[in-house]
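QA checklist item 7 of 12: single-chain prediction sanity check.
[x] sequence parsed
[x] length recorded as 227
[x] structure emitted
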Amino acid sequence: MMKFNVLFRPQIFHKYNLVFNKTMFIRSTDKPNAESITRPNMSQPYTKFFVLDFEATCDNGAHLLKPQEIIEFPCILVELNTAKGGFEVVSIFHSYVKPIIHTVLTEYCTQLTGITQDHTNMGKEKSIIVTSGNWDIGNMFIEQCKLFPSTIKIPEFMCTWINIKKLFALTMGQYPLGIKSMLKTTNSKQFGNIHSGIDDCVNIITIMNQLSQRGCVFQATNKIISV
């Protein structure tokens, strides 16, 4: 597996809190905010999207493995083609990461993720990370950085992201349980295996295309601010 520190510069880690953009917060899955549902004539605030889905060390049962460490780092860069109304893949980054604290993967972790023991610069264009839920950035990434407080600081471009579940709820009128339920609701075919990070990224892009066809505006839903 490749090491995790390729992306980061050695800087001091600061405390972070997860906050929610009030205009995007879903108060009711039955009646989402009418002003935020779909605005087909509104220009999109972002042109490029980094679709990300971490997988981490884990175990089954009541006593979950702590601390968790990222073991799969997949990211697919897509660009919105306004003429076609869909997303086109620009590039793919995919790396497995060797855990340092719990070095041996549990049998449950391997069965769930398919991962075995063997195993930038953003530019000037408007870009944003896309995840399914807030766990990847709002929880797992922050906890990973806390394991190495003297060497890792959360990059500024990873402090804001789109939780595709929220935009799905605003567009479709119901809050989804996860990737499977979003694919089913939009009559989309599942690619690969759920809980394979790179396969989940592909499935998220499929969902994004479905929402784009329904006039979804892909605006930020969540951010991290320093205390």
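[x] summary fact logged: The CA atoms of residues 17 and 225 lie 6 Å apart.
[ ] second reviewer sign-off
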